[in-house]
Structures are given as C-alpha cells and as structure tokens.
C-alpha cells in the first residue's frame, strides 16, 4: 500500500503555479481562431503556419530562460526565482492582450516564454527537493496534474467566454491576472518547516559543472530525446485540438474548448492516479505501457468523420490518460538512472521537452497547411512510439546490468 502523501505551503504554491502556467500556455491556442482573424492571419486561409510559429517563438525564449534558471536558482534560490518568473509571465500575457498586430503579439508571447521557461525549469526541482526522501516521483506526478487542471479550466472558461462574444483580448487579460496569484505565494515571507532551497549560494562554475557532467553522459541523451518526443506528442494535441475541431468539424469555440478539456481531463486522471498508485520503481513500466496505449489510440482521431465528434472526445480523454504521466515520469526516472545534480537534470530535460512542444506544434501547422490538420495528427502516435522504444531500450539495459550483478 502506497504511503499517504503529505503537503505543505510550497506544495500548494507549486499547484497554483502549474495552473497559472497552463493558463498562460493555453489561452493563446484556445483563442487562436478568433485572434488570427482579428490580427490578419486567418487559419482557414493559409495562416496555420503563422499560428504554429507562435508556439515556436514562445519555445526559444523558454529554452534560453531554462538554461539561465540554474544559475538564478544557485544565486537567489528556486522560490524567489519562481516568484519573479510568474510576474514576468503575467506581464507577457498582458502585453499580448493589447497587441495590435502579429509581430507585437509574437514578441509578447516571447516575453511570457521567458517567465514560463523559469517555471518549467524550477517548479519540478522544488517538488523533488521537498520530498526527496519520500518517493518524489509520486509527488511530481500529482503536482503536474495541476497543469492539466489549469488546461481544463482555461479551455472551458475561455471557450465559453468566446462563445458568448467576449473579446479574446479580455480572455488574455484574465490569464494575466491569474498568474499573479502564485507569484505572491512564492514571494511573500514564509518561516514554516518546508525549505525547498539550499541555504548556501552556488557559484556559476559549480552550476556549469553540473550541466557539463550530464552532457558528457551518453545515457542522459536517451532521456533527452524521449522528452523531446513526449513534449511534441502532448503539445500537438494541446495546441491544435481546439482549432482542429472548429475548422474540420465546423464547431463553435465552446466545442473546441470542450475537446481540449476532454484531453486535459484524461491527463489529470493519468497523473493523479499514477501519483497515488505507481511507486518510484515502477515508473519505467508506466511510461512504456502508456506509450503503447497512446500510439494505438493516436491512430484513430484522423480517421473519424465529421459526424463522430463525441467519439473523438472519448478518444481524446483516453489519449490524455496515456499522455499525462510522460513528462513528470520520464524526468523522475532519469534522476534514478543518471548520476548528477537532480535540479540540473530537470532543467536540461525541460530544455528538450519545450523545444519538442514548439517544433511539433509548428510542424503540425505546416503539415496542416499542405495536407490538412486531420492528416497532421499522425505525428502524435509517431512521437509516442519513438519515446516508448527509447524507454524500453533503457529498461533492457537495466535488466542486463542487474543480471551482471
């Protein structure tokens, strides 16, 4: 029987951080059809590539911020760095809400990406450090489920507001305000028992040494590639499902948001259940099993006809269950398999997952412009099959290592 999970102040701060992070990440994709029409790159008239490029433009500053956030954590601590990052993310989405043209929207999304990169790089290490002696993989999976809670809330509320005629600008402004809540939780003084930060400051050469040690480890690159594919498969669905439903099924923004909510709801179930029930030593079983299920399920959405939207919603829910555990479980499993600083492992793996999100979201837009969004969805099972093979290979290596002992 799994041990009871115990949460404190910074756990709840991390939960709200993931919710706000999801809100800022998803509010632009949910509003993309209306936003594109307003700013002069309508998706139905060849603008899908420009739409996908927004995610690519967000990913580049995210990676830059993640490469820096290890130094920030060593100098100022993870908690303070996360608080400042949430403020920066809020400012970026606020600027996007008032952007008068595509170029300025692109720049505003890039500003938000700087804050999101720090959140992506440091939120998971904070949870790891809080529960380092108590099966951290369970807490990481559970905490990451609040990303999906944020996705569901964002797509449903934003879809409803757009359906009721509320401007996309007000929807983005709401996301800006929500992001300030976790900023206060991280930045306000706290003197309780939880201490997620090291007491001593780390010199930049120490942080660089941690990164160099990992880069020289061949096994680390296996997990790096798996994270790239995991990010790609997850965000192909998260970014494009709403637009796909609106364009290919001639549905409303509310139905587009509902489709994304089914996928995110499945991710909540996948992460929370695995957090409660799957022990640290079973993470590789979880990832490989979910990869097989996700590959098979991912083959069906492009084959459905326009009158089968509710079947699509069901498939998206089960795809969400299969997808949910990938990101946190691959990271936590890598910490077990690769010797090195755990904070730097989380940061560098996120430096693979985030570009995977951006690259495949952009690639889906390009493929969608050429052959249609329906056919571009085959990228999802391709990503899942690839990451499943990588983790299965490492599993075989682990078995051989144990047999030699």
How would you portray this structure in words?
It contains 17 helices and no strands. It is mainly α and 405 residues long. The mean pLDDT is 84. This is MFS transporter. The chain crosses the membrane at residues 12-36, 56-74, 81-99, 105-127, 139-162, 168-188, 220-241, 253-273, 285-303, 309-330, 342-364, 376-398. It is found in: Endomembrane system.
- Secondary-structure element series: HHHHHHHHHHHHHHHHH
Number of strands: 0
State the major sheet: none
CATH homologous superfamily title:
MFS general substrate transporter like domains
Distance between the termini: 29 Å
Strand fraction:
under 5%
Radius of gyration: 20 Å
CATH-defined architecture: Up-down Bundle
Q: Which structural category do the helix and sheet elements fall into? A: mainly alpha
Mean pLDDT over the residues: 84
| Count of DSSP-assigned helices | 17
User: Runs with pLDDT <50, length 5+?
Assistant: none
Question: Concise description?
Answer:
By secondary structure, this protein is mostly helical.
What secondary-structure arrangement, pairings included, does this model have?
Blueprint: H1 9-30, H2 32-39, H3 48-76, H4 78-97, H5 102-130, H6 136-163, H7 168-178, H8 180-187, H9 204-215, H10 218-248, H11 253-277, H12 283-298, H13 309-323, H14 326-337, H15 342-371, H16 373-376, H17 379-404
């Amino acid at each position: 029987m799994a041990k009871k999970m115990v949460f404190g102040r910074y756990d709840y701060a991390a939960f709200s951080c993931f919710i706000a992070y999801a809100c800022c990440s998803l509010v632009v994709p949910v509003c993309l059809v209306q936003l594109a029409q307003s700013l002069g790159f309508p998706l139905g008239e060849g603008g899908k590539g420009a739409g996908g490029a927004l995610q690519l433009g967000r990913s580049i500053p995210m990676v830059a911020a993640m490469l820096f956030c290890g130094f920030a954590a060593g100098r100022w601590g993870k908690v303070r760095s996360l608080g400042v990052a949430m403020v920066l993310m809020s400012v970026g989405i606020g600027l996007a809400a008032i952007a008068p043209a595509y170029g300025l929207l692109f720049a505003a999304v890039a500003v938000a990406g700087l804050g999101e990169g720090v959140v992506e790089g440091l939120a998971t290490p904070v949870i790891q450090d809080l529960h380092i002696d108590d099966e951290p993989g369970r807490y990481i999976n559970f905490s990451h489920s609040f990303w999906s809670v944020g996705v569901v809330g964002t797509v449903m509320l934003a879809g409803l507001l757009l359906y009721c005629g509320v401007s996309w600008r007000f929807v983005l402004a709401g996301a800006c305000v929500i992001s300030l809540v976790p900023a206060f939780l991280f930045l306000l003084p706290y003197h309780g028992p939880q201490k997620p930060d090291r007491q001593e400051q780390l010199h930049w050469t120490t942080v660089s040494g941690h990164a160099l040690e990992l880069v020289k480890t061949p096994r680390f690159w296996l997990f790096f590639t798996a994270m790239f594919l995991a990010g790609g498969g997850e965000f192909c669905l998260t970014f494009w499902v709403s637009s796909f439903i609106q364009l290919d099924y001639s549905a409303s923004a509310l139905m587009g948001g509902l489709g994304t909510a089914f996928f995110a709801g499945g991710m909540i179930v996948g992460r929370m259940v695995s957090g409660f029930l799957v022990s640290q030593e079973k993470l590789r079983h979880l990832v490989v099993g979910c990869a097989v299920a996700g590959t098979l399920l991912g083959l069906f959405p492009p084959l459905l006809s326009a009158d089968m939207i509710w079947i699509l919603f069901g498939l998206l829910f089960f795809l969400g269950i299969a997808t949910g555990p990938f990101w946190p479980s691959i990271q936590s499993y890598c910490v077990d398999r690769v010797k090195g600083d755990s904070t730097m492992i989380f940061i560098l793996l996120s430096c693979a997952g985030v570009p995977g999100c951006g690259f495949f979201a952009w690639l889906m837009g390009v493929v969608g412009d050429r052959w249609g969004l329906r056919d571009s969805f085959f990228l999802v099972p391709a990503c899942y099959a690839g990451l499943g093979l990588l983790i299965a290979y490492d599993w075989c290596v682990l078995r051989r290592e144990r047999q030699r002992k």
